[in-house]
Amino acid sequence: MTHKLKLGVLISGNGSNLQAIIDAIAAGSLDATVQVVISNRRHVYGLQRARTAGIPAITLDAKHYETFDDFNRALLGELLHHRADLVVMAGYMKLVSSHVLDAFPNRVLNIHPALLPAFKGAHAIRDAFAAGAELTGVTVHIANENFDEGPILAQREVPILPDDTLHSLESRIHEVEHRLYPEVLQDIATGKIQLCVRPCGARYQRRACPC
Ligand code: GRF
């Protein structure tokens, strides 16, 4: 049975992955609603995308909070206030603290433009290209308190072609991201991917969690 997901999407910039999620919902291929979009940066295009789609769009600037924990408490407050049941990091360039992770056990997801654990970090596409790798890709994973770590839910390979430029590679990776993230979310909605409600640490949760 499909369970309609209530997404809280975290962004820091352009929001093309957010747009892919909005578009998949509109097309009927993703059973979800975006309850709220929260950006840690003001005036980013992703906020505009949210507003255009009629989704509440909020900026929370960490500079306005004394500590990282205070900032994350505010973030959690907004996610709960807007009744999100799954947190989707989509180009969100910050970590989430244990406050958020504990309130959403195994239910904070991230997308990364490389085949983790290879090429972690903020410049994954550029790094894979500069390293002369022949293969890179996209990973969707459950987030933890470290950057680009946590149980992997899905990966899709993207070959680096001999005549690729950084720009052409970026385009192909983003295309794959825009298909993969909505697909993984829909697999969660349908129960094909089952996320344990407790932080049991099961690695690859395509079946009922053993805990
Ligand atoms: C994506 O490549 C995503 O994998 C990475 O940051 C980028 C965000 O792009 N974490 P956008 O804001 O969704 O357009």
Question: What do you see in this structure?
Answer:
By secondary structure, the protein is an alpha/beta fold. It has a domain of 142 residues: Formyl transferase, N-terminal domain (Rossmann fold). It has 6 helices and 7 strands; from the N terminus they run βαβαβαβαβαββα. A 7-stranded mixed β-sheet has the order 3-2-1-4-5-6-7, with helices on both faces. α1 crosses α6. The longest helix has 25 residues. The protein is globular, with a radius of gyration of 17 Å. The relative contact order is 0.16. The structure holds 5-O-phosphono-beta-D-ribofuranosylamine. The site of 5-O-phosphono-beta-D-ribofuranosylamine has 13 residues, from α1 and β5.
Task: List the SSEs and their pairings.
Blueprint: E1 5-11, H1 16-27, E2 32-39, H2 45-52, E3 57-59, H3 68-81, E4 86-89, H4 98-103, E5 108-112, H5 124-130, E6 135-142, E7 152-159, H6 166-190
Parallel strand pairs: 1-2, 1-4, 2-3, 4-5
Antiparallel strand pairs: 5-6, 6-7
The structure holds 5-O-phosphono-beta-D-ribofuranosylamine.
What's this entry about, in short?
The protein has 211 residues and is α/β, with parallel strands linked by helices. 34% of the residues lie in helices and 20% in strands.
For the structure shown, list the relevant keywords.
211 residues, Rossmann fold
Oligomer: single chain
Reported for the largest beta sheet, the result is:
7 strands, mixed
Number of helices: 6
Distance between the termini: 22 Å
Radius of gyration based on Cα positions: 17 Å
Order of helices and strands: EHEHEHEHEHEEH
The strands making up the biggest β-sheet line up spatially as: 3-2-1-4-5-6-7
Task: Quote the beta fraction.
Answer: 15-25%
Q: CATH H-level name of the domain at 5-112 and 137-157 and 178-190... which superfamily?
A: Formyl transferase, N-terminal domain
